[in-house]
Amino acid sequence: MKTILIADDEPNIVISLEYLLQREGYRVEVARDGDEALQAFQRQVPDLVLLDVMMPRLSGYDVCQKIRENAAWSGTRIVMLTARGREIEVAKGLALGADAYITKPFSTQDLLTQVRAQLER
Amino acid sequence: MLLAGGILLTSFAYLGILFAIAYYGDKRADAGRSIIANPTIYALSMAVYATSWTFYGSVGRAAASGVGFLPIYLGPTLMAALWWLVLRKMIRISKVNRITSIADFIAARYGKSAMLGGLVTVIAVIGIIPYIALQLKAVSASFLILLQYPAVVMPPKGHPVVLWQDTALYVALLLAAFTVLFGTRHLDATERHEGMVAAIAFESLVKLLAFLAVGVFVTFGLYGGFADLFEHAAQLPRATQLLTLGGPAGTYGSWIGLILLSMLSILFLPRQFQISVVENVNENHLSKAVWLFPLYLFAINIFVLPITFAGLMHFHSGQVDADTFVLTLPMAHGREALALFAFIGGLSAATGMVIVETIALSTMICNDLVMPVLLRWQARRLSERSDLSGLLLGIRRGAIVVLMMLGYVYYRAAGEAYALVSIGLVSFAAVAQFAPAMLGGMYWKQGTHTGAFSGLTLGFALWAYTLLLPSFAKSGWLPISFIQQGPLGIEWLKPLSLFGLNGLDDISHSLFWSLLANVGGYVTVSLLGRPSIREHAQALLFVDVFRTTRRRSNPWRGSASLQDMLTLVGRFLGPQRAEEAFAGYAASRGAKSLREIEPDAELVRFAETQLAGAIGASSARVMLASVVKEEPLSMDEVLNILDEASQLITYSHQLEQKSQQLEAATSELRAANERLKELDRMKDDFISTVTHELRTPLTSIRAFSEILQSDPRLTLAKREEFIGIIVKESERLSRLINQVLDLSKLESGRAEWHSAELDLRDVIEDSVSTTQPLLREHGVELTLDLPERAPRLRVDRDRLKQVMLNLISNAVKFCDRRDGRIAIALHVLPEALRVDVRDNGTGIDPADHETIFEKFRQVGDTLTEKPQGTGLGLPISRQIIEHFGGTLWVESARGQGATFSFTLPLHPQVAQGTASPASEMTA
To answer: Would you call the peptide bond into B905 cis, given omega within 30 degrees of 0 as the criterion?
Structure first.
């Protein structure tokens, strides 16, 4: 069973994502901010992380960079979530090592399709 | 037996020869085949330096002070070594600027000043008159002596001679007539007198030969050569005295003074300037003159000592004046022809000096003294006269006669009081006063007109005081006590030992003080002032004359017709000469006839130099200006005149200033741009943040809606939970949208205001009751502290309630979890009302006191629990409060709760913000 880490500071979004992913049969871990996300990585390296960009203290970009710096975590797929959809932000995320990018509000179908695709790589 | 007739005949014959030579010389010059374009002639003509002072006076001085006669010849010899530098520069400057006299030189250098020219002329005249008298004395005395041949009798002294029996008078008149004929037959723009130069060169030869003849006669005729003569002389007790320095031969100090003096006079005596500078044909002649002239001086001085000793031995002291030995020795030995030759030699020496000196002086008098005065007073009358050349010539002739007469007068008055040599030295000291202004003018660009004027006046005044007046006193015109005790008995003003300076002979003493004052005045005043633009331009022309190979034409703009200028020049030079000159100029410009020439700056300058030759530079300028209308020079043209323009410096200063101003403006613009970009960024940030804030609740709403829609297996509990979230997020969303719009309207002034007079206590109570459910939900206790009475206020009720609700809900959010307490108080201030809302929460860090009033900023970003608010409440509240002229702020510290306070003025001046009057309605 694949493990997915959700890193987002909006509680309601977390609830929705948690429900969706668990329904699909994934194991879900939750982090409220960047530090918690990295700590989760220490405990158990997830197969995929849904990373919100706008988080307090450590932003999603920083977390992404940190994940990619660690060779042991290179197997984790990173999917970034953001309410901002500007091109430059997308490019930045991809340049930092993210594998995919989803803008909010998202279609639940799109999200699940993307997650599945990423995990099959 | 020599009769007066014989002497006179010989003399006239000699003068006739001179005249013939001069005439021939002029003729050849007019034909273009000059006979004086020859360095030997040039060097010989410079020997006009040796006058009857040399011819007779050297021996006289040698008899009194042995080798002490030498210094005045050592000076020129030394100066000759420097001629290649100094004199050549003087010649170049004078040729380039068409300078025709010392006065002209000085006046031109210091801004073409007529004042200076006049002053120099006056000094020169006063200084040279005694020298002329000296020549008269020599000629008349030698004539009288020769008349007594074979007896050697000195001319009677002491009792006054009747005027018409005074030989000197006739000599003066004769010389005046001769000079007038000689030197003023026509006016020349260059002031060159080729015939005169030829005659002068001839004279130099004659006097040298005469002196050598007497010398040879004495040394080899009377004795058996130099050795023999000096052996005999050694028997004279006086001889050894005379041959050593110190003692009667003069101290080292006086030698230095005399050498310096003669070094200056070889340059600045008017006759020397005339011959060596004005009459110079070719600069390169100087290279020969540099050694030929000292050689001449050497030659004419070889036999001075032999003649002196011979004379002393032959004539027992007191019988015969040593001044006359050159004449009386041949006479005493019966050599008639030799004596006559000697007389002619003396005559030659005297006439040479007188001719050149008076011509030079009369030029100065005419150009620099009379003409400027005439122009000032009679300019209109002058310009109406068609031919002024006659006037100019007349002025010069008159000047010559006047000068000779003045010389005669001085001779009558003071000629007996001094030996010949002393009179000469007084003149030397006078012309030495020109040295600072001239040498300074040639080598120092800082010299100014006022500086030269001060130097000259001071120097001349001191010369007069220390030399001229004492000579009057010694002649009896002033009381002798003037010298002995000083004027009015003031000891330290004694003219011969000024300020107590003793130990120098009269001449050195005078030289010291006059030159000190002269140089001091010149340098100090020049440094204190600044040269005018004209002075500066002239300074460059003079000091840098060797650097500027081509004369730059004056950028001058004006209008003048060729005919006008031709007429003007013709008036002074004579119409025919003017035509010739202009035709020559036209040919040099490549035009076939005069009519083809465009009147431009070069032509005007040409006309100016032609005129300058006739009437002096300053007068020429004035006359030309009256004909030509000058337009003022523009900045560019001034820049063209001056090489190292002080203007250029000023210009670059201005440019510097301008560029600094530009820089300042640019940096201001840059700052403004930065501010604009900042605002832009803030706007972008705002939009971006709003977008984010809106999308966040939308995400939940959409996600849960899709889940509810697509998932039939949802439990009821889950369904209710999810729908609840949708509802809450929808509320959140609409709240956010409302607040964003509200804030936007408030900030842009588009909000509507409905103000009425109300009691604030009502609003507060109303707000409290509205928030009762919230308070109960969180278990928060609220206390109200309202005064008995409160003045009414004109505000918008709903808006104020909005503020209260915001503050209360904030307080609820942040007060203590377990024991939440809120206190609301209303205070009446003299000019306003103040409301405090206090909570007992964890407080707000002072660093965040202002941050919380920023859009979308919420304290609680640092808390683990994400705050519920939008982050816009406080900014909106502040906008509202400030609209009514009040202030909203917070007082808090960590751990001590927070108090939010706002004031509302009772009588706001003008409604703050941008509320439109139409929206203010009474309820």
So the answer is: no
Interchain proximity A105–B699, CB inside 8 Å: yes
Are B692 and A105 inside 8 Å of each other by CB?
no
Does the beta carbon of B750 lie under 8 angstroms from any beta carbon of chain A? no
Q: In chain A, what are the domain boundaries?
A: 3-119
What does the pLDDT look like over B69-128, one tens digit per residue? 888 899 999 998 888 889 988 998 888 887 888 998 998 888 777 888 899 999 999 889
In chain B, positions 885-914, which contact chain A (CB-CB < 8 Å)? none
> Hey, are the CB atoms on B700 and A106 less than 8 Å from each other?
no
Domain covering A3-119: architecture: 3-Layer(aba) Sandwich (3.40)
- CB within 8 Å: B703 and A20: yes
Residue with tokens 């820089």: B663
Name the residue facing A104 among B695, B711, B722 (closest C-beta). Answer: B695
Q: How far is A74 from chain B (nearest CA, A)?
A: 29
Q: Which of B698, B722, B866 sits opposite A11 (nearest CB)?
A: B866
Q: What is the pLDDT of residues B254-304, one digit of tens each?
A: 788 889 999 999 999 999 999 999 888 888 888 888 899 999 999 999 999
CA–CA separation, B854 and A29 (whole Å) = 35
Strands in B821-828's sheet, in edge-to-edge order, are B781-785, B821-828, B832-839, B898-905, B887-892
pLDDT tens, position by position, B414-438: 756 554 557 788 888 999 999 999 9
pTM above 0.90, yes or no: no
CB-based contact, A9 to chain B, within 8 Å: yes
Phi-psi category of residue B337: left, alpha or beta, with phi > 0 → left and psi -120 to 50 → alpha = alpha
Structure tokens at B492: 């330290």
Residues of B in contact with A84 (CB under 8 A): 688, 691-692
Q: Dihedrals φ, ψ of B494, to 5°?
A: -60, 125
